[in-house]
Amino acid sequence: MRRRSLRSRLILLVTVAVALAIAACAALSWFIVENQLIRQLDQSILEPEGKGDQKFLLEHCTSDGSPDYHDMATLLRADGSTCSLGSPIVPTEEDRGACEGSGGEPIFRNGVTRDGEAVRVVTLNFGPGVAVLEARPLYHIRITLRNTAILLAAVAAVGVLGAAIAGLLIARTALRPVGRLTKAVEHIAKTEDLDTRIPVTGDDEIARLSSSFNAMTTALAGSRERQKQLVADAGHELRTPLTTLRTNIDLLLRSEQTGRSLDPQAKERLLVNVKAQFAELTTLVADLLQLARGDTDHEPHVELPFHEVVTAAVERARLRGAEVVTELSPWYVVGGAASLERAVLNLIDNAAKFSPGGEVEVRLDGGRLTVRDHGPGLPEEELPHVFERFWRSPSARGLPGSGLGLAIVAQAVAEAGGEVRLANAPGGGAIATIRLPGTLMRRSETDKSV
């Protein structure tokens, strides 16, 4: 069974709700009218009678009634005998009880005459052992109630029709932004055009949904643009070592194919160059794989001693020839040990590259890690770009590197919930600062002490 559209369901809901409300109001109105008419009829029956009326009733009533009278009255005696003017009223046990009392409250009920006509009956005590039953026909009231019911039904039908039309208009107006959103989603699905935007008006739920949709498409467009840029930059960066590799290998092959052997030293230089290019390619591919990971595609985050991670990175940097002095205090963070160690190592390698022969100072205190070099520093206009992928300072074009090291640092620190910045240090050189949320003691040790 095909499910109804949101618009048809909204129209149906409004129509049913209004129809139920109109039906309830119509039924209530009908009962109020009926009650009012019956009350008016009872009051007309209870109009005070003069002694002449009572005498006339006693003198002219008969056991079979007299059909010449429109109004109906029946005297009921304690022995069950009756005497009537007009069509005789059929008494009930309740009416017989009125014969025994004197005065008392009148008895109101619906009844019938001996001819089967429906009437409204009021029973009063007439005297000792006698009760009088007065009645009026219900025919006119029933006609009025029937006409009222027809009128209310017509009004209800018009109301339901109006509710359906109003529901249609309300649905069209209320769902127009949803329709625009649907068309935008279908357009994006068909054309992959992430520049599509939905106009946002007001501050209701639809407006918030439109704003969220625009934010989502903006984020997706930015992500796709970054992916395109990454692929383009990667292709550009890979082209240089691959071209060099191909050139060197072509020289080696040509020397072998032509029988003109290269000078041993030249051949060694070519092979060393090929090895260096392979190493550069390996590093570049590893960096690209590191950056290509999604925000959720990272190693499991656990609580770890960040000072030990920094120590491990410093030892690796020293093996590469860097002179590093450290001043570390304990700090425990939640993150990935491998990615954080890689980030710290990249900062140390970067500092060592720009201060050849100089010391790299690494300090960790209260969750603030600083890595300082004593090189020339950076121009202020270049500082905002240092963490961009493949960005390299013009002064560093001749130095080894792919321009991805600091981008990897920024990604690793962000995954651990921290922040990183690079600035020129007082007295010369540059200083990189990482701030990571954490504690001085392991949480397990803190819980035990508590």
Protein topology:
Elements: H1 6-45, H2 51-60, E1 72-77, E2 82-85, H3 93-100, E3 107-112, E4 118-127, E5 130-137, H4 139-191, H5 205-258, H6 264-292, E6 302-305, H7 306-319, E7 324-328, E8 332-335, H8 337-354, E9 360-365, E10 368-372, H9 405-415, E11 419-424, E12 430-435, E13 438-439, H10 443-449
Parallel strand pairs: 7-9
Antiparallel strand pairs: 1-2, 1-5, 3-4, 4-5, 6-8, 8-13, 9-10, 10-12, 11-12
Helix pairs in contact: 1-4, 5-6, 7-8, 8-9
Main location: membrane
Keywords: ATP-binding, Cell membrane, Hydrolase, Kinase, Magnesium, Manganese, Membrane, Nucleotide-binding, Phosphoprotein, Protein phosphatase, Stress response, Transferase, Transmembrane, Transmembrane helix, Two-component regulatory system, Virulence
Protein name: Signal transduction histidine-protein kinase/phosphatase MprB
Write a structural description:
With 450 residues, the protein is an alpha+beta fold. It folds into four domains: 6-39 and 143-182; 41-137, Beta-Lactamase (2-Layer Sandwich), CATH 3.30.450; 205-292, Helix Hairpins (Orthogonal Bundle), CATH 1.10.287.130; 302-447, Heat Shock Protein 90 (2-Layer Sandwich). Helices cover 54% and strands 16% of the residues. It contains ten helices and 13 strands. The chain has helices at 6-45, 51-60, 93-100, 139-191, 205-258, 264-292, 306-319, 337-354, 405-415, 443-449, and strands spanning 72-77, 82-85, 107-112, 118-127, 130-137, 302-305, 324-328, 332-335, 360-365, 368-372, 419-424, 430-435, 438-439. The strands form three sheets. The protein has a five-stranded antiparallel sheet with strand order 2-1-5-4-3, sandwiched between helices. A hairpin with a 4-residue loop joins β1 (72-77) and β2 (82-85). α5 (205-258) packs antiparallel against α6 and α8 packs antiparallel against α9 (405-415). The longest helix has 54 residues, at 205-258. The radius of gyration is 50 Å and the shape is rod-shaped. It is an enzyme of class 2 (transferase). Keywords: ATP-binding, Cell membrane, Hydrolase, Kinase, Magnesium, Manganese, Membrane, Nucleotide-binding, Phosphoprotein, Protein phosphatase, Stress response, Transferase, Transmembrane, Transmembrane helix, Two-component regulatory system, Virulence. It catalyses: ATP + protein L-histidine = ADP + protein N-phospho-L-histidine. GO terms for molecular function: ATP binding; phosphoprotein phosphatase activity; phosphorelay sensor kinase activity. It comes from Nonomuraea phyllanthi.
